[in-house]
Specification:
This protein is an all-alpha fold and 108 residues long. The protein has a domain of 75 residues. 73% of the residues lie in helices and 0% in strands.
Length: 108
Amino acid sequence: MTDLLAARSRLEAQLAELEARQAHIATDLDEPLNADSAEQATEVQDDLSLERQAALIANEIGSVRRALLRIEQGSYGVCVLCGEEIAPARLKARPEAALCIDCARKEH
C-alpha cells in the first residue's frame, strides 16, 4: 500500500511538472513572430522544435494519466499486454510503465 501511495505521489508530481512545461511551451508558441524576416525564419524553426517537444510532452502526460487510472482501477503494476507483474525496480525507475520489461522489449 505504501508503494502504491509513493507511486501515486510521484506520478502526480510528474504530471504537474509536465503540465507546467506544456503550458510554458504554449505561451512561447503564442508569441507573435518578429517583423524582421531573417528573425522570423529562426523563430519558425524554434516553433517547430517547440511543437515537437509539446507532442512528446503530451504523450508523456497521457502515459502518466493512464498510470494514475490504473492505480484507481487496481491494475497498476500489471503488464497491460501479458498480465504479468511489472518488476518493482522498473516501476521505481518508470512509474508510468504499462509494460513489463519483456513486453517492452518486444514492442521496440
